User: What shape does this take?
Amino acid sequence: MKNTSKKVLTTLILSTAISVAASAGAADKILLKTPIAFGSHLPALGTPIKWVSEQLSLMSDKKIRMKIYEPGKLVGAKEILDAVSSGKVNSGYATAGYWQGKMPAAAIFSAVPFGPEAGEYMAWLYYGNGMSLYQEMYDTAGYNVKVMPCAIISPETSGWFNKEINTPADLKGLNMRFFGLGASVMEKMGVSTSQLPGGEIFGALEKGAIDASEFSQPAIDQRLGFHKIMKYNYFPGWHQQATVFELLVNKDAWGKFTQAQQAMIETTCKASMTNAIAEGESMQFEVMAKAKDNGVEIRYWNDTMLSAFEDKWSEVVVEKTAADPFFNKVWSDLSTFRKGYDLWESHAFLPRAVK
Assistant: This one.
């Protein structure tokens, strides 16, 4: 009887151990199904998430895999947040500016007119209150997501036009594709704006549905062919001195990952911030050097235009901080951080003229 009991107990222990091991093995493998808002062929815009997927697989010995779905293949770019939150997919790659219609403050976590360059932006996100506010925004709005910055690029161009723009009057009446908070500025300048996906811009310009457009950096815009039909490319990108892209993960799924798995995903995204900006910075000048060969004239906004953009941006800030308490909370925090950072920046860096 005693031997029989021992055999039964041994069998139970072994069965339990096998069951636990099997469960652990299943939980040990993660597949992140990740629709993306930007084609993975677009340098520094879509390529970073492809790099992330490769690194996660390599570092985890294929225990964390990411399957990327190109824009519109699984869900539309503008549907990614809802799809991740509901659990339709367990992750997604986009930019928070796409959600400003749902959460006005979202635009601040994407790109800010006359705002921080990449180094300052990352300093606020990682070592200021940026990340806590970023997650708080989604939590407060009822979205079931974990957010991580997963790429960042430096300034974009601020517009492709088929006529010279020398005064604010030259903008009035134009229909233009424009992104984020900068679109609110352009509307105050008398421009009608729309936020078309990248893949639709060339066709809209060609058909005359829009008169002008901004999208991204020169190397990215070249892939979309803007130089084939537009004559003037204006700089600097006052509306997007830096742009942040995010990886969203369903919170229920995130909670089932081990701390090591979570750390691997977060750290890879942080590494992607470095990789993305280095990639973007490395390729712009070659494209710009060939602008004349493509019949494109590169222009720098004159002081009158830059002052007009900045004045209208000040008006937008007043309106948006008054209209939305959380926008005001985030803007106040970023502004406080930037005032402190100005002390460092004004002493540490050479003036642009000296450079």
About this structure: The longest strand covers residues 145-153. The two ends are 89 Å apart (CA to CA). Residues 1-26 have pLDDT under 50 and may be disordered.
